[in-house]
Amino acid sequence: MEDILKVNKLTYKYEKENVLEDIHFSVPRGAFLGLVGPNGSGKSTLLKIILGLLKLQKGEVELFGTAIEQFKDWHRIGFVSQKANSFNSGFPATVYEVVSSGLTKKVGLFKRHKDADKEKIRAAIDSVGLTEKIGSNIGELSGGQQQRVFIARALVSDPDLLILDEPTVGVDAKNVQSFYEMLTELNQDRGITLILVTHDIGTITDKVTHVACLNKHMHFHGDTEEFEKQNMSDLYGHDVQVLMHQHDHHHHHVHHHGGENR
Q1: What is the mean pLDDT of residues 233-242?
Q2: Lower Cβ count inside 10 Å, N or C end of the chain?
């Protein structure tokens, strides 16, 4: 099994404070990894580094066996951000249009979509279960449906790796279950490797194949079975903050403000 993503000795600091410290982990092809950690734990910083949005300061990141500094095949990585589903109802685009915009990297903005592309767009919409909404205005959809549209938009360029940042924020509980079932299908049937970033460890352990617990350091990284053998209260505690405070007594209050963007 090759690793799609390898992170080694990664440290990242803002000003003088380390946000990530000596992070090692890898994601094998075909895995469904849950990346968990409280707000301010460094999850968003780690994502931005993996997506090439922040430059490496210290350590190594490899994507598909290539050092990230040399990596060019960004279409192989799909990303669905947390902000994806904050559309207002006046936004004038249909589901089809939003999903087709995932192809612009390849097609160029003003070239006509060929039939093969139309087929891809329809297939992506179908794979997230929204065929009957294909002509609907995205602003009229529920939060969960909007989030599916953005997953379809990421799927349309056929990524090998799909990264989802807190995808169930704003999705109501009864739809969360079917949302995860859809992700499991993408992982198992289409063979897409998934990284799901979440602070909600409870709901995902029966869905994911691997877990990584981040809180500035990587506190755990392994498959779900090993993870379930861990003493959860040591690792993740009822109050996750405890983890943080052991490391970092005098700074911890900083994490509560604006920690989200890290």
Answers
A1: 46
A2: N
